[in-house]
Amino acid sequence: MEATVAHLKKGQRGIITDVSSIYIPLKLLEMGCLPGNFVELVQVAYFSDPMYLNINGTHLAIRKETASHILIDIL
Amino acid sequence: MSKQINVALIGNPNTGKTSVFNALTGLNQKVGNYPGITVEKKEGICKLSRGVKAHIIDLPGTYSLNASSLDENVVIELLLNKNDKDFPDVAVVVSDVENLKRNLLLFTQIKDLEIPSILVINMADRMRYKGISLDIPYLEKQLNTKIALVSTRKNYGIDELKELISNYRELSTVPCMNASEIDKDYFDGLRKAFPDQLLYKLWLVITQDVNFGKTDRNEIEAVADFKTKSRADLKRLQQKETIKRYQFINETLKKGQIIDLSTAKDLRIKLDLILTHKVWGYVIFFFILLTIFQAIYDWSSVPMDFIDSTFASLSEWTKNALPAGTFTNLLAEGIIPGLGGIVIFIPQIAFLFLFISILEETGYMSRVVFLMDRGMRRFGLSGKSVVPLISGTACAIPAIMATRNIESWKERLITILVTPFTTCSARLPVYLIIISLVIPDKRFFGLGYQAMTLMLLYLIGFGAALGSAMILNKILKIRSKTFFVVEMPNYKLPLLKNVALTVIEKTKAFVFGAGKIILAISIILWFLASYGPGDEFNKAEEIVTTEFANQNLSEDEIEQHVASQKLEHSFLGITGHAIEPAIRPLGYDWKIGIALVSSFAAREVFVGTLATIYSVGSDDEETIKNRMAGEVNPILGGPLFNFASGISLLLFYAFAMQCMSTLAIVQRETNSWKWPILQLVIMSAFAYIIALIAFQVLK
């Protein structure tokens, strides 16, 4: 099974490999959630949801369900 | 007369766009609505050199030209419509020096529309702190534009920006990249079909989900036939376009921007490890709320007492200074007390808006969204529902408009429906006067009982909102996608100017909006209270004189009896008596009944109404509060406003839907009469039942 952003642990980083555009809102792509960019899990709420991420320098929060559609290579 | 230059300010959210707007226009700004929709339209005038003026529009913040909400749609509508009177001669794209990469996405799109554009790199004072250095001439060349490095905080760059706006004719309109490469065949076909149209404009029209208004749509209506690609295909193309743009931006910034991470400091992460912590985050949030409510209560008591006594003396003075007559009575007994009833709440409303705007300006509000999302989802809401619920403590109208950034329709609809439960500033006057009457002014470990009661009422409001959200979540069968994206901007010290402008503008809107209704209702009420049918009203003097003939009353006492006889048999008194049976089980008399009925138009009318009712026929210099304290319950004896009836009234106002403007806005935002009518009926019935139970248990 491939790793996704939902698998990241606090403080861990990864490189985005693919995003399935059906599940990911365009807005998130425009904010920098694109293949090749890095992603870091900054902070988690309880039950790790939502997730506070640093994607390519933009700090944002998304729900775990959305995060599970962003494929990454964990660094 | 020289022509005004039309300027549109465009930018991502959290780039300090509004600060730039405030710096350019100062107090020369006005806030209105775009015709037909409830999106706020901010515009202002800026004086440039040589007597030239610029008309500046502050457009809603957006991450791109792909609109996903009504607010964002405003930006595109304007930029696509050359015939609009506000169509910009020049677009000023505001970016944040720390997020240049992301901000440039929107900039490259605007360049593709061939509108002369200036790039403002805002918050330039933070460059050193963040280890950023920029090669401005290189960036200007690559992006085909002029750049202004601006810091509204340190107050520089604005004059340079004004100079660039004055010389907008020298700006290049050549796009900085070619987006049509993402699908050559498709775009070639498009170009052949519409040789006169701008290719990128066609592309935007094709890909937008939202309906266009009156844009010069007719001339490009035919593109509808060109929607040959499926939604999924179009989205894939939009993704390709976004990647393409980022490639260009990355190339440009590789040479134009150097970030030395070794000198960069990041306060945001350090703060967020505490402020968004699983435990400490919530504890801190709770204490911030507690402090706010304590402050609203404590800080505003002095100016409020002052306003209260000033209006009482003004009313007294009017009576003595003007010749006696109907007009003087109307002024002294109807209009002045009615206005006093609204002016007195300016201090509290201003403090409330002050705190809300500070929370937003600092960036803390986004953290609250993050903290609350998981919990709110349990109630069928989104973390973003917290912003409307908190803004609802100021006014439900902007709060309901603030639901527009909630991505899921179901979560948004539930938020709209439950927001009116939160304690808006119009309830504050009612709460404050009743609390001061029935809750003792004592302290417990430094916290006043009165302030704690107020906080409790706010919590009840939130509780009712959440509880009903949970029920709605179960009942409503709406399927919708649940996206949730929220940006966590850098923490910033709030700019005094921005906060002050927000407070002034919002307070003004509240006072004038509510003031009009209150003035009208005060006048109507005064007439209804001053005239009545039949002998019982018109021969009040004779009746009273006969009744008390052998009791040796002083002239003053007789006058009082005459006044109350008159009020009781006036049109207003008759109406009040008619509804009294329905509200007596709640602990209210007919006077409160009148206030209840009139406050279905707007809650804050309650206090003004009581002021009018109680001051009719009185010429003592007495404040509303003292008169209310002196009222006696006609059936049970004892003070009318005691603990039981007071709590019952507080709870009635906590739950009842008494605001016509809110109903109107719900109708507009949901585009249906069903929801506002349900809101009105269910909330008011619930309020009645709860108030009934409260009085019957406590009496």
Record keyword descriptors for this entry:
heterodimer; A: 75 residues; mainly beta; SH3 type barrels; five-stranded antiparallel beta sheet; 5 strands; 12% helix; globular; B: 699 residues; alpha/beta; Rossmann fold; 3 domains; seven-stranded mixed beta sheet; two-stranded antiparallel ribbon; 31 helices; 12 strands; 59% helix; elongated
Description:
The complex is a heterodimer of chains A (75) and B (699). Chain A is mainly β and 75 residues long. Chain A has helices spanning 26-30, 64-67; strands at 13-19, 38-44, 51-55, 58-62, 70-74. Chain A has a single domain (5-74), classed as Ferrous iron transport protein A (FeoA) (SH3 type barrels, Roll), CATH 2.30.30.90. Chain A has 2 helices and 5 strands. The model of chain A has no long low-confidence stretch (mean pLDDT 89). Chain B starts with a strand and ends with a helix. In chain B, helix 14 (346-362) packs antiparallel against helix 21 (496-530) and helix 20 (449-475) packs across helix 29. Chain B folds into 3 domains: 5-186 and 240-259, P-loop containing nucleotide triphosphate hydrolases (Rossmann fold); 292-475, no CATH class; 510-698, no CATH class. Helix content of chain B is 59%, strand content 8%. Chain B is α/β, with parallel strands linked by helices and 699 residues long. At the A-B interface, helix 1, strand 2 and strand 4 of A face helix 3, helix 9, helix 10, helix 15 and strand 12 of B.
Q: In a few lines, what is going on in this structure?
A:
The complex is a heterodimer of chains A (75) and B (699). Chain A is mainly β.
Q: Find the structural class of chain B using helix and strand composition.
A: alpha/beta
Globular, elongated, flat, extended or rod-shaped: what is the shape of chain B?
A: elongated
**Mean pLDDT of chain A, rounded to whole units?**
89
> For the record, what is the CATH homologous superfamily label of chain A?
Ferrous iron transport protein A (FeoA)
Q: So how many helices of chain B? A: 31
Computed over alpha carbons, the radius of gyration of chain B is: 30 Å
What is the fold-level CATH name, i.e. the topology of the largest domain in chain B?
Rossmann fold
* Main sheet: strands, sense, barrel of chain B: 7 strands, mixed
- Described by its quaternary structure, the protein is heterodimer
- Largest sheet, strands/sense/barrel of chain A: 5 strands, antiparallel
- Across the major sheet of chain A, the strand order is 4-3-2-1-5
What percent of residues of chain B adopt helix (DSSP H or I)? 55-70%
GO molecular function (chain B): ferrous iron transmembrane transporter activity; GTP binding; metal ion binding
Organism (chain B): Gelidibacter maritimus
Protein name (chain B): Ferrous iron transport protein B
Family (chain B): Belongs to the TRAFAC class TrmE-Era-EngA-EngB-Septin-like GTPase superfamily. FeoB GTPase (TC 9.A.8) family.
